[in-house]
């Protein structure tokens, strides 16, 4: 008889008994901290201060603006759109922001699961064919508008997290 697997399992049992789930308030705090970090990264990019997040710019209407009440799934959807847009921009300023957005989406997923919310990961925009034309015509404008609206959306998400967002 093989006693090796049984002995290893019995040896691991006390270790597994001490494992605990991460408290949900910790996930919410990590989400808040990550949002503040992303906002700081956007602030560090100097040219993003020149456009209001509410200003309408022709051809850039697909970039999400502020929304009144954000559910966890709507937050994920918004972040997915921003991720898609930022991947099309020059990487010099946005690589770390993209990584942070992915981590934030994962934290939002954990929050949704803890609340028992159905939470399909959003894929973002359905069609991006027009995005390439806009990007070639106005790469700088698109970067500025995207980052300023992302910053405003993140600040709104921060407020929503403080209120306890719904599914």
UniProtKB/TrEMBL annotation:
Q: Where in the cell is it found?
A: Secreted
The record's section on Gene3D superfamilies has: 1.20.1250.10
Disulfide pattern: 117-167
Give the signal peptide as a residue range, or say none if absent: 1-21
| GO cellular component terms, A-Z | extracellular space
Main subcellular localization, coarse class?
secreted
Q: Does the keyword Secreted apply?
A: yes
Q: Which domain of life is it from?
A: Eukaryota
| Keyword check for Ligase | no
* Entries under PANTHER family matching the protein: LEPTIN (PTHR11724)
Which protein family is it in? Belongs to the leptin family.
Known role = Key player in the regulation of energy balance and body weight control. Once released into the circulation, has central and peripheral effects by binding LEPR, found in many tissues, which results in the activation of several major signaling pathways. In the hypothalamus, acts as an appetite-regulating factor that induces a decrease in food intake and an increase in energy consumption by inducing anorexinogenic factors and suppressing orexigenic neuropeptides, also regulates bone mass and secretion of hypothalamo-pituitary-adrenal hormones.
Protein name per Swiss-Prot or TrEMBL? Leptin
Lineage, broadest ranks: Eukaryota, Metazoa, Chordata, Craniata, Vertebrata
């Amino acid at each position: 008889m093989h006693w090796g697997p049984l002995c290893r399992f019995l040896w691991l049992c006390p270790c597994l008994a001490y494992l605990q789930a991460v408290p949900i308030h910790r996930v919410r705090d990590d989400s808040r901290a990550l949002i503040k970090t992303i906002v700081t990264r956007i602030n560090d990019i100097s040219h993003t201060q020149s456009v209001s997040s509410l200003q309408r710019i022709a051809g850039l209407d697909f970039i999400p603006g502020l929304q009144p009440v954000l559910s966890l799934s709507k937050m994920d959807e918004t972040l997915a759109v921003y991720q898609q847009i930022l991947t099309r921009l020059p990487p010099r300023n946005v690589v770390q922001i993209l990584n942070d957005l992915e981590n934030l989406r994962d934290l939002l997923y954990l929050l949704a699961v803890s609340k028992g919310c159905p939470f399909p990961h959003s894929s973002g925009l359905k069609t991006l064919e027009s995005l390439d034309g806009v990007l070639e015509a106005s790469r700088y404008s698109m970067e500025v508008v995207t980052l300023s609206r992302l910053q405003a959306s993140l600040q709104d998400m921060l407020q929503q997290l403080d209120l306890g967002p719904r599914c």
